[in-house]
Amino acid sequence: MTGTTHLEHPQAHLLRTDRFPHIWCPTCGIGTVLKCFIDAVDKAELDYDRMAIVSGIGCTGRVAGYVKLDSYHTTHGRAIPFATGLKLANRDLKVVVFSGDGDLSAIGGNHLIHAARRNMDITVVCVNNFIYGMTGGQAAPTTPSPANTSTTPHGAYEPPFSLPSLLEACGAVYIARWTSLHVRRLTKSLTEALLKPGFSFVEAVAPCSTLYARRNRLGTGFDLMKFYHDHSCIEHDAETAKLAIDYQKTIKVGRFLDIERPTWHQLNDRQHLDTLGDDYYRAAEAKAAQQEEVDHVEA
Ligand SMILES: Cc1ncc(C[n+]2csc(CCOP(=O)(O)OP(=O)(O)O)c2C)c(N)n1
Ligand code: SF4
Ligand SMILES: [Mg+2]
């Protein structure tokens, strides 16, 4: 046989393959979630030139650097304020935050809750691997009790956040959770989240196979897939208060919330039209948008 065949990555249109090999460990679920995200961007038929993706710091935080969109790898915990700034500067952009559980709910927790409260029009994809993966497997606000982590060698004892419950309480309009085993369903939820106006949140459970799984005797990445095959239960519309992830027990997955609520931009327009009328610098666009909403409801 002579010569070699060059096989192009099937998602090369949205991946910076020149930056490969990527940094993720073999069997890490982050790559699977990224694959689902790219499929979702295509299913949602979004215009690549009107999209931006923002990540913080961590293993998951590397995602933005591998995606061939306008992408920003920001500082730890600051992906959401950065994304909010992009959306304020250009409301026509589809803005996505793709980051880790620690980045979003520990150091970035304050930004997470306020962006949901404001119903800022962004989509947040959180890879929940139950720990700080990049820095050595320390306990995070999502670590189930009594998991073994590098900072809790005798078992974690702090009660963890249940992210869907936290986000519903804060005001998110779309909330779903899947594991990295649920490739088709995760892709569908990501598609819905991308098309949803307002603050949408998708939690992708993908335990760190190198640090969390090893310390907690969950085996390899393949064993994790088997674990979630046997220990996940689909319950759409489940009450988010009942979605806590217990250590090594069955976890509930599904689309839990899909509601309507005015976005930050709609409220901002409404307030300034009411108070300033035609003196509001966006009066014409705001009135047109409001009319569109009325037509949509009546249709
Ligand atoms: C201000 C600041 N504090 C701490 C760190 C160290 N640090 C880098 S990533 C990380 C945790 C990442 O955890 P997570 O967001 O869950 O991402 P993962 O690596 O698990 O995907 C920490 C604490 C940092 N880079 N900057
Ligand atoms: S350390 Fe864990 S989270 Fe990070 S790439 Fe490896 S398996 Fe994935
Ligand atoms: Mg993490």
The first-level CATH class of the largest domain is given as Alpha Beta
- The CATH superfamily of the largest domain bears the name Thiamin diphosphate (ThDP)-binding fold, Pyr/PP domains
Backbone CA Rg: 20 Å
Main sheet: strand order: 2-1-3-4-8-7-10-9
Residue stretches low in confidence (pLDDT < 50, at least 5 long) are: none
User: Could you please say which CATH topology of the largest domain applies here?
Assistant: Rossmann fold
What's the pLDDT, averaged over the residues?
A: 96
Bound molecules: thiamine diphosphate, iron/sulfur cluster, magnesium ion
Q: Report the end-to-end length measured between terminal Cα atoms.
A: 63 Å
In CATH terms, what is the architecture of the largest domain? Answer: 3-Layer(aba) Sandwich
Tally of individual domains: 2
Number of helices: 11
**Secondary-structure element string:** HEHEHEHHEEEHEHEHHEEHH
- Write down how many β-strands occur, each being a DSSP E stretch of 2 or more residues: 10
